[in-house]
Amino acid sequence: MQIDFIKCQGSGNDFPLIDGRALALDDATWSAIAIALADRAGPVGGDGLLVLVEGNGGAAFGQRMWNPDGSESETCLNGLRCVARLGFEATGLVEARVSLPTSTADAAIADPLAPGVVTIRTDVGPVSTRTADVGLRIDAPELIDSAIPGLPSDRRFTAVAMPNPHLVTFVDTLDEAELVALGDWCEAAPPLIPGRANVSFVTVDHGELFVRTYERGVGLTDSCGSAMGASVFAAGLTGRIGFGAPVTVRNRGGRVVASASQDARIAIAGNASFDYDASVEIDLANATAGPVTLRRRRDDEIFAWQAALGTPPD
Length: 314
Ligand SMILES: N[C@@H](CCC[C@H](N)C(=O)O)C(=O)O
Description:
Belongs to the diaminopimelate epimerase family. The active site is at residues 76, 224. The chain is of the alpha+beta class. The protein has six helices and 18 strands. It folds into two domains: 2-109 and 272-309, Diaminopimelate Epimerase, Chain A, domain 1, CATH 3.10.310; 131-264, Diaminopimelate Epimerase, Chain A, domain 1, CATH 3.10.310.
């Protein structure tokens, strides 16, 4: 099949994005498209597949998101900004309620983070710290800055359902090998957390957060929006930052400005950058992609984002 897509990124989390509102495809087909398009060894590559869909329950439009391994996630918050942007362009709205598989979010065009950078604010919640919602098979009803019996780590974690599952720990120094080992352990769907989890190591410096995440279904990524949201909430719950105040959250891919409230709502403002528009042939039987036909390059957006990060254009 031939399909049009936009290659987009939010805070360096990059995705092929498809307007699926007029496409009647079943979940197995979307899963195969995700595997084909997100494959880093293929012609597109990404941290998953984003799909703009019709909204449910009065929402203006909706989002679905598949990981590169073909599993569907409950949410993707860097992706939500890109989906919302496409939804706004399709509907003429500048703010909207967005439906996700098990929750809703509010999205609105926001003041640019930097010149030329399309910026969207999303508000989600209430998020949950109930271990059952996170998918942890454990006696404790919630885990806030606590050791997790059975997890191969002595660190203290906060478990948050965004609603996708997150385990967040605050560290003095970021040990990537340790993060990968723990992420790999969760990725094997152990009895403690059979639905797997996104695992983040977070440092706090002068009121700013740096978040490094091993994503469920992906591995190490340059950025994960729901992890940044979970980290800000965990930082508030553990007194590392104040509730209500916007904080800068950095990662390998960029930065967002986020805040969490005591009643478990999380706001994130960040970029929703479109890099190029293209169409691609997908072999559904083999879940592979190619060739790609480029329709439009969006170099202005690429350069604006690079300038915002202080990196010279390639
Ligand atoms: N990168 C995303 C999260 C994507 C889903 C995640 N891998 C999961 O399976 O929960 C984000 O920006 O939130």
